[in-house]
Design goal:
The complex is a heterodimer of chains A (216) and B (227).
Chain A lengths: L7 H12 L6 H5 L3 H12 L2 H17 L10 H20 L1 H4 L34 H13 L2 H12 L4 H8 L3 H23 L18
Chain B lengths: L4 H12 L8 H13 L1 H18 L10 H12 L4 H8 L4 H5 L2 H25 L21 E4 L5 E3 L11 E4 H6 L3 E2 L25 H16 L1
Parallel strand pairs in B: 2-4
Antiparallel strand pairs in B: 1-2, 1-3
The chains are: A mainly alpha (216), B mainly alpha (227).
């Protein structure tokens, strides 16, 4: 993984101790990868509570199969791969592939057809403190959930997790070219989902005034 | 090199990625000169940069509230310590009785019991098995709607996401997980989930609800609390 610090020896020692009869240390091994695991599950599953459930399943699966882990790879990469496999199994079980609207399915020419933006709302500046706003985070989550599966997978691994193109292609089992075209499409669609609302709306004050109750 | 809008849009992603994007200098320059004269492509480029910048920010897609605690709790529940570790916790066996000194034996057993007790209470503190609300001064919800609610991770209440009394950073979680974490309903926006005191001489408010639904909700809550 592209985590800034990777303590290879520490990881190895920790795994050894867990195998030697200190299983309660497993959480320590997983802790640095919590977010990656959750995001990998979210990449495949879209729904937050499903993603959390699968993330837990994947972590537990990693624990029961720790003997199968080979020291030459990184624990983080291995754990993410398990998570992606688990999440895909869940997705297949839920038939959500079948539920996908026709036009979003990658057709034979699906990845090569040109994308025509329908909205050119200008969105020049986004001060990073707007991220403190709940509305922006909600809009981001909505935009992410609106992406078709194949774009969301790539977008989360490449842009949210900041993984390299090669690593993303390996994890998802698709070519690097496919990662690039899907990423372009995903970014354009994210922009389209967010830009109209960000042409000033996010900096506006609370959506309801004094005396107006959101629950009535 | 002159690029059409279509060609530019195909390269935007690589351009935003900078040196890793795989665009050579000539292509970058051509793209820049196109964007300088094309407001639409310029808007797309600016927007795409914002998307990438936002996505990389850790705050943009936070872990659900309580994620780590739940993961840790589940792991602890499912991972059994190895048998020799259990023995180590409960103290030395067999050997002390061979010493033959009843005082030493009882002393060793007392120490073992104390160690075990300490270990157990430590575990208890880390993974509280018993559900308890975060605030002693509030009432727990008496029914749990299937809905997303907003919580302040440092607070004690859960709210309708637009509640004006929710002032600090909020996280959106499902109502059932909020209740499991010990959050209680905000009196102002989620007051409907609180059991109201019935006026004198009247039947309890909840009696008006269909019996089956209420009973089911209660079951759900007690199941959640046991968890």
């Amino acid at each position: 993984m592209s985590d800034a610090v990777w303590d290879a020896d520490g990881e190895k020692a920790l795994i050894q101790r867990i195998r030697d009869g200190e299983p309660e240390l497993f959480y320590e091994l997983v802790r640095p990868h919590e977010r990656s695991v959750y995001l990998a599950a979210l990449a495949i599953l879209r729904n937050e509570s499903d993603a959390e459930e699968i993330a837990q399943e994947a972590v537990f699966k990693a624990f029961t199969h720790l003997d199968g882990f080979r020291a030459e790879s990184r624990f983080g990469t291995w754990l993410i791969q398990i998570t992606i496999n688990e999440a895909r199994m869940r997705r297949r079980k839920d038939h959500s592939d079948i539920m996908m609207p026709l036009e979003t399915r990658p057709g034979p020419a699906g990845e090569e057809t040109d994308y025509t933006p329908v909205d050119f709302a200008d969105w020049r500046e986004i001060p990073s403190e707007t991220l403190e706003r709940r509305e922006l985070r909600e809009a981001l989550a909505r935009a992410l959930a609106s992406l078709p599966d194949i774009y969301r997978e790539v977008f989360i691994l490449r842009d949210v997790r900041n993984l390299a193109t090669a690593e993303t292609s390996e994890l998802l089992g698709i070519s690097e070219g496919a990662v690039k075209t899907r990423l372009l499409r995903a970014r354009l669609q994210m922009r389209e989902a967010l830009a109209p609302g960000l042409g000033g709306n996010w900096s506006s004050p609370a959506p309801f005034g004094k005396g107006k109750k959101p629950w009535s | 090199m002159v690029l059409s809008c279509e060609q530019v849009r195909r390269e935007l992603s690589g351009y935003v990625d900078g040196l890793d994007g795989g665009l050579d200098a000539a292509r970058r320059a051509a793209l820049e000169s196109h964007v300088a004269g094309c407001p639409r492509c310029a808007a797309l480029l600016a927007g795409m940069r914002n998307v990438v910048q936002l996505a990389r920010d850790e705050r943009a897609f936070p872990l659900p509230a309580g994620f780590s605690e739940r993961l840790r709790g589940r792991l602890a529940a499912r991972i059994q310590p190895a048998p020799d570790k259990v023995q180590a916790i409960s103290g030395p066996r067999a050997e002390p009785s061979r010493s033959g000194n009843p005082l030493v034996t009882s002393l060793v057993w007392a120490t073992a019991a104390a160690t075990l007790f300490a270990a157990l209470s430590l575990v208890r503190a880390q993974y509280p098995g018993a559900w308890r609300p975060k605030s002693r001064h509030s009432q727990p919800a008496f029914r749990i709607p299937i809905a997303q609610v907003a919580i302040d991770p440092e607070g004690k209440l859960f709210h309708v996401p637009q509640c004006p009394y929710l002032t600090r950073k909020a996280q959106i979680v499902s109502c059932s997980s909020a209740v499991r974490e010990g959050y209680t309903p905000c009196v102002r926006c989620e007051g409907g989930l609180l059991r109201r005191k019935p006026p004198e001489g009247q039947e309890e408010d909840s009696a008006k609800l269909p019996k089956g639904k209420l009973a089911q909700d209660r079951l759900e809550i007690s199941a959640l609390r046991r968890e």
